[in-house]
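Follow-up to my earlier ticket, as requested here are the two runs.
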Amino acid sequence: MKTALKSLIDATYPEAVRLRRTIHANPELSGKEFETARLVHDFLANIGLSPKYYAGKTGVAVRLDNGKGKTVVLRADLDALPIEEKTGVDYRSKNSGVMHACGHDMHTACLLAATKALTMAKDSWKGSIVALFQPSEEQAPGGALCMIREKAFPKSADAVFGLHVSTDHAVGQVGIKSGSDYAGVLDFDVCVKGIGGHGATPHKTVDPIVCACAMILQLQTLISRESPNYEPSILTVGSIHSGTKHNIIPDEALFIGTIRTFSQSHQEFLRRRVLEIITLVGRSFRANAVVSFEKSYPPGFNDEALTKRAESALIGLLGSSNVVSRTVPTLYAEDFAYYQQKAPGLYLHLGVRDPAKKNVAGIHSAHFLPDERAIRTGIAVHAGLAIDILS
């Protein structure tokens, strides 16, 4: 399989790079991936397949059937982020304020090329392969739910695989973690309502900014002092807004944040404590505070038996030095977790760091520039794992 797959990767890699650059230059935000979906649909149709649109023509799926056997699902995501690109490459984003800063262009190119390779290698596998190209991974509740609801995800599947670019690993490497990996998310919004007035007479006001700052500082103790060290978790305040002028104390202050955990029980504990802290700190400042919560993605879980089998297959395909066993789960979040609730699943970390460079920008950075040589590895991972299950 290794020799035959290498030949297929050599044949599809140059086209995959061109596809990736086209997608990168034309990024689209969550729920607006119409042209990206069209590119995916047309590519699949041009290689003789019968793709179908989903999610209002922002997602695409195609099924490859080759006799009786198991069913494997391979997934990529299509959407970009609201970031102004600062990489300076020739194929940088043409869409102002939108950038593929999370590597979904790489994910899509890898899966398109792997799908083509698998159509060329039908003598190596029997069964069915479903390639999912989903929208809106970056925007809760996530495009995965829509793809499941519209039956793009098969009723019964034996395995589902996905990958995400990672600067934790060098080009050619793949990170793999059994069990918990990728966190469950609970977002929160806080509105602190005080009494505004002149900055010269703060004693005549209830200052919502000072109150909000006290709340934010107190919330940090939920991780450092109330979360056990064996329960990885994060609480981050990502935005705070209030006021209009140097000498005006406003009526309100708003801040928003995210909680990430790997267990439902700890998430619920943190939710309860956030509400208590916001209420009590607000009361101590004579302010009113309103808190709202919104659940995003559930925790991810890599099936242990599937992970063990995949690790063995990848060592045979890439070499033992290129398969990195990860011991600590990441606190990033992914709606791939919804697929893992439908079938045994494995989400891998695709190394995209140029080993010759000491410092590289990470995902969600305006300077993020993954090494395109990693596309070879991504094609090999998708195609190799599918063939391993279906051979």
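Run two:
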Amino acid sequence: MESVAVVAMDIHKKFSKAVALDAEAQVLHVWRVDHDDQEVMEEFFRLFAPGTAVVMEATFNWPWIADVAQAMGMNANLAHAQRAREMAKGMAKSDRKDAIFLGKLYLAAGDVFPRAYLAPPEVRRLRAHFRQRLLLVRMRAALKNALHGQLFRRGILTDDDASDLFSAKGRLVLAGLELPDYERDLMERKLRVIDQLNDHIQAMEEVLKKEIRQDPRGQILMSLPGVAEITAYSWLAEIGELERFPNGRALAAYAGCLPLDDESADKDFGKRTGRRCNKFLRWAAIEAVSGAVKKSPRMRSLHSRVKARNPKQAGKARIAVARELLELAHLLLSRQETYRERRPARPGSQGRTRTRRTSDPNRASQAAVSARPRRKRDQAEP
């Protein structure tokens, strides 16, 4: 099929509806491709010339189809599912029409196609490990909360006896509680599952830490305050290829840590972070804030300033620090440098009077430093 310009696919769980379009967006053929066997998908892609564009929405099961398409020499492209649905709002809906609409968006002139990131296999592998660990951690937290709730429903408070019920001391406190047999059985079952989850999480963390220590990018990220092995691993996994972000501001927006204006009819509702973001990266960035504020005077100062301006919205201070960390991460990874925090000169010292006002080589909030090539004065050691 030499005249095929794009193959658009509407992907479902058990099958895909595929439509071939020519350069004029005219429908040439329609197929139903079952997902029973990967060889069926390979045979389907053999119908087209190598290099033919294939478009599909970034649904839950796109990776294997995109991998098969690329292995057969096709040009795989992902569409942002939510943005594509918004663009098709009000149109008649069917599997065939959805596929045709995707194909027309790809062929339209200008930057109309709502492109999503087609993560390569290595990035997907990193994300799978990180998200698996995060799932186990959340399951463990849910079980711990359930056990606390079980005790609260019986009016049992253990704060004075043990601050952590799941430590060695806390387990002794739990063992000494007077509970009915069925309550004791429920509690013991929760504790056994928590212990199993602890073993799985610990085993996964050992693998992740060993891998991130051998990655030069991990060493750069771990030089940032508050960023340890697991956080560095999660950032690399969720960021993917750094080249797709032109600057640190774009990375912060991707993580939902960039405040956006909210104005209408001369009314200013303040700034809010976007909801459309990589929620995993946002979570990992905010997790690093507490450690960064403790270890870094610079981050502590930023947190204090934003918190003082927003006394009733403490979350804004955490978002501000998370944004600064992400912008620093982009800057340092781009330059292949580790983080160096410039210490202020002591009051009254001669060095203070001779200090010139120069750009901090690790100041991510300076757009001129992060967006333009380094100047000579930026290359000087602090």
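The only thing I checked on run two: The chain is about 50% helix and 10% strand. Let me know what else you need.
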